Amino acid sequence: MKARFSVIFLLALTLVCLSAQICDAQKLFTNEVPVPYAIEGPDWRIDIIDTLHNFDPNGAVSTVIDQSNGDTMTFNLNASVQAFAYNNPDSTNVPGALTYAGPTFIADRTNDKIDFPITNKIDTLTTVHWHALNLPAESDGGPHQRIQKNQTWHSVFSIIDEVQTAWYHSHLMDFTTDQVTRGMAGVMYVQDPGNDPLYAQLPNEYGVNDFPLNIQAKSFLFDSNNKVTSIKAGEKPGPGSFGMVNGVLGGALHVPSSMVRLRMLNGSTIKILNIGLTRDLLYNYTTQNDSIHFDTMYLVATGGGYVDYPRPFTNNLLSLGDRREFVVDFGQYDHGDTLYLTHFDNKLPKDAKYSKHWYSSAMCAFVVDTTIHPEQPVTVLPATLKSYEIAPGPIFKTREKKTYSD
Ligand SMILES: [Cu+2]
Questions:
Q1: Is 373 helix (H, G, I), strand (E, B) or coil?
Q2: Fewer CB atoms inside 10 A, N or C side of the chain?
Q3: Which pLDDT value is given to residue 133?
Q4: Which CATH superfamily is 2-368 part of?
Q5: Centre of ligand 1 from the C-alpha of residue 129, in Å
Q6: Which pLDDT score, from 0 to 100, does residue 3 have?
Q7: Lowest-pLDDT range, 180-184, 277-281, 301-305?
Q8: For residue 348, how many C-alpha atoms fall within 13 Å in the half-sphere facing its CB?
């Protein structure tokens, strides 16, 4: 099967490259998908900083198709541009410090109250909002809780939510899109190792077989030589639009040859995604291709926590801010085999606003590496995850919208 896999892969790659008129496939996916460092509670502190970030440090991404006329356009994205990052104060200016987005907060559900100091070190206002968490309004970081320049805001709360993947981002009035696009977003895990029997049955080794994937559509501005100059607020379709994972374009993530948990966040501000796993490399293409070989991803959780049982999908929608946890059985592949996390624009629902006329494209590669050994590799998924009961009582299909006057 493995030899056949390679032949089919090369054939498919050739066909795709010909049909899409692009091909610098050897350079594609030579960046490394960074795994942001994790901070485990309850001793959390964070600074919001101005940074410079290179989205394509190896020059892996260079060529895209102009959708309007089919011309090939070459871009140089291997340059640093202004961005925002969240960093633990102890991590700033040390190797591993982030130059884009934020660390992964791993929150234990049994933690006591957290007092979370957040310091604004950028030249403008911002907020930090905990997307999906149940917490007091004064700690939620909504548009009303602006953190002034050089001020520290204390967000105080306990983790009372179900086990899930949440996230955090700027929620500044009128500037949320701009600040999130420039990097103000990060992933949060809510876990409960002491009480959750599924904890040990699913991959849980951070950065080994359990990865946060902040998937973002992004557009850039370029100078007259097509060299990148800055991030464009929002995601505008057309030339200069790219998909990225954890702040890197054309990145590869090395995964063990066993079950791997991929905690996907659509951290875009406009773009709805339809994500699938393919062996065929499809890069920034606009043509329909119905002969793609999909591989199965098992949905184990959404933003609301575990689903009822591992549900197989070939592709799945991620709306803005959505989280989906998929487990993929990379144990069926050999060392060096590569699969691509791919967005299929042509499979979006017709009414997905803002989502048409974008590229379908691989956003990162997963490269199987048999030298990576999780301490507790997972080889079989549990048959069931969580039982749900439909709440008794009538289901109302209409709602009355109340309006209040002063
Ligand atoms: Cu949100």
A1: coil
A2: C
A3: 93
A4: Cupredoxins -  blue copper proteins (2.60.40.420)
A5: 7
A6: 39
A7: 277-281
A8: 22
